[in-house]
Amino acid sequence: MDIYKEEVMDHYEHPRNQGSFGDAPAKGGQAGQVIEGKDANASCGDMVQFQIRVKKVPNSGTSESSELEIIDEVKWKGIGCAITTASASKLSEYLKGQALKVVQEMSEEELLEKGIGFSVNPGREKCLTLPVKVVKKLLES
Amino acid sequence: MKLKFDPELIKRDFPILSREINGKQIVYLDSGATSQKPQVVLDAISQYYMTSNAAAHRGAHQLGDEATQMLMEARRAVTRFLGAGSEKEIVFLRNTTEAINLVAYSWGMSNIGKGDKIVVTEMEHHANIVPWQQLAERVEASVEYVGVTSEGKIDIDDYKQKVKGAKLVSFVQVSNALGTVNPAREMVKIAKKSGATVMVDGAQAVPHLKVDVSSLGCDFYAFSGHKMLGPGGAGVLWGKREILEKMKPFLTGGGMISEVHKDGSSWAALPDKFEAGVPDVASYWGLKVAIEYLEKLGLPAQAGMESVREHDMEIVGYALDKLNKVTNLVILGPQDPEIRSGSVSFTYNGVHAHDVATILSENNVMVRSGHHCTMILHEKMGVAASVRASFNVYTTKSDIDSLVEALGQVKKTFGK
Asked: Which of A111, B37, B186, B239 lies at a CB distance of 3.0 to 4.6 Å from B244, suitable for a disulfide?
């Protein structure tokens, strides 16, 4: 399996949303809750940290709640291989603008499929799934 | 005279090594994780199951007798191979990890107490760290770590300092991550002089060096058969008889008792005291055949482990030479084959070890990537992960050439 496809290499070489809110403060006036989580890949010590900022917007769709929480900003950083880096980068792009509740209700597999969308051989599965695990864990907290 | 054998011929004894993927023969450079097995070992295992399989040490029937005999023969082979004083000193276990855990629980719980010091080194495999950390936690002892130099050697001055007053010293004879051959005899001597009990992790030494526990002078020695051409599940703990005699059992149950009564039990004699449950005779029998295979290698006839080491140094030297010429590679550990055995590990500037290993695998070259169960060492070296090419008697110079060629693909993919 050729896992180093153009798309993967592009995200690896030009990772999106890299950094943290600490390093690059978001624009003023956009106060929102920042949640953070990190984890490591036990087989190589790679570490990924995700920060997600949630914004409340008026919910016009249903009468259930007057406000809807959406993921407004995503930042991630870490040390990782090409696969972990591309996976985190793609996931960060996907998460932006998603309703928090929708992502919370997704299974790991679903998030992997929708948020990342490429696959690797079994030996590299941990590299691919590390960012997903971090995000799932932080959304549960 | 050079003690030699031709690894190209040896390779033919290992059926798996003729396997082809995408029409190309595989290049197996992950023997440090586990070695491949020669046909004679595979045959011995299946022969055992086809003709003699029974529960050893139990019952009085013919097959049970044969299985028991085979287990005894296997123990004799290991005793000879390690230069041990007695078969009573050879405990059959699953692997090195189990052997170290046995010592940590059985000897450790009785001999290490509050405030005592256990000394290991920064280059230990997790198997020689975590059991001691766990022991220290239980009895409120401490674990200290001897430093490693930038060259990848034990800092012997630091070692001399740290072992002072230590109750137990445990160190690796050959580093699985750096290939360093530690001056084990000297280190044992220093630790014994200050009164410590000494354990040596021989997992990466036994496949490549002639080991003689009697002249090494340590108290415990552990190794895994599967890294030295034997089957999985056949590991060995050697311990000095007088120490093993005093130790309590680790796992308890059938086979390790003398008598069992409602008000208590007594233990079988050595080594059975440490071998609860029906033994895996097939694997120990396979280990015996692997030992005989190694002993017969080399010229002059049956130079055995001496010629194994000769070949090891030649391959390590060749790999160092070739890999040093690859741009962007940083070799970890000693550059001198005299103090390096079994492997060459490296990092590739700008490309993660897992990515390097994946690309090598796409080119049929199989190496290990990651921290190789030595997180403390990798932290010390300031690298998250490294690539390790590791060898055994079937490794040829052409295998190393294939590795170097495949590394060219890393450059192509990553442009570095």
From this structure: B239
The residues spanned by each domain of chain A are 6-140
A25/B208 Cα distance (integer angstroms): 56
Whether the per-residue pLDDT at A25 is higher than 80: the answer is no
- Selected residue with higher pLDDT from A67 and B117: B117
- Picking from A81, A84, A127 by the largest number of B CB atoms within 10 A of its own CB, the best residue to mutate is A81
Strand blocks (E) in B122-272: 142-146, 168-172, 197-201, 220-224, 235-239, 257-261, 264-267
With CB atoms and an 8 Å threshold, state whether B352 touches A121. no
Answer whether B229's CB lies under 8 Å from B294's CB: yes
Q: Quick check: A32 pLDDT over 90? A: no
Q: What pLDDT score does B306 carry?
A: 94
Where in the sequence of chain B do the CATH 3.90.1150.10 domains occur? 7-30+299-414
Domain at A6-140: CATH code: 3.90.1010.10
Give CA separation, B368 vs A121, B34, B86, B177, B214, in Å.
Answer: 15, 11, 37, 10, 33
pLDDT over 60 (residue A30): no
B367 contact A CB<8A? no
pTM for the model: 0.93
Q: Is B12 on the interface with A (CB under 8 A)?
A: no
B 384-403 → A contacts, CB under 8 A: 384-385
C-alpha distance from residue B66 to each of A121, A136, B40, B254, B271 (Å): 45, 56, 19, 20, 19
B7-30+299-414: in CATH 3.90.1150.10: yes
- B-chain CB neighbours of A81 within 8 Å are 352-355, 385
Instruction: State how beta strands B20-21 and B24-25 pair.
Output: antiparallel
Shortest distance between the Cα of A119 and any Cα of chain B, in A, equals 14
Question: Do residues B177 and B123 make contact, with C-beta atoms less than 8 angstroms apart?
Answer: yes
Give B65 or A24, the one with higher predicted confidence.
Answer: B65
Percent of chain A with pLDDT over 90: 54
List, by residue range, all CATH 3.40.640.10 domains of chain B. 42-292
Q: Which residues of B are catalytic?
A: 373
Cβ-based neighbour number of residue A7 at 10 Å: 12
pLDDT at residue A106 in the model: 94
Report chain B residues whose CB lies below 8 A from the CB of A4. 355, 358-359, 413
Q: How far apart are CA B311 and CA B295, in angstroms?
A: 14
Q: Is B290 helix (H, G, I), strand (E, B) or coil?
A: helix
User: Looking at the complex, does the CB of residue A4 fall below 8 Å from at least one CB of chain B?
Assistant: yes
Amino acid A46: pLDDT: 82
User: Looking at residue B2, what is its pLDDT?
Assistant: 60
CA dihedral A18, A21, A23, A26 (to 10 degrees): 100
Give the closest of A45, A83, A124 to B385, CB-based. Answer: A45
| ipTM of the predicted assembly exceeds 0.85 | no
Q: How confident is the model at residue A37 (pLDDT cuts 50, 70, 90)?
A: confident
Distance from C-alpha of B92 to C-alpha of B277, rounded to nearest angstrom: 11
Least Cα separation, residue B20 to chain A (angstroms): 16
CATH number of B42-292: 3.40.640.10
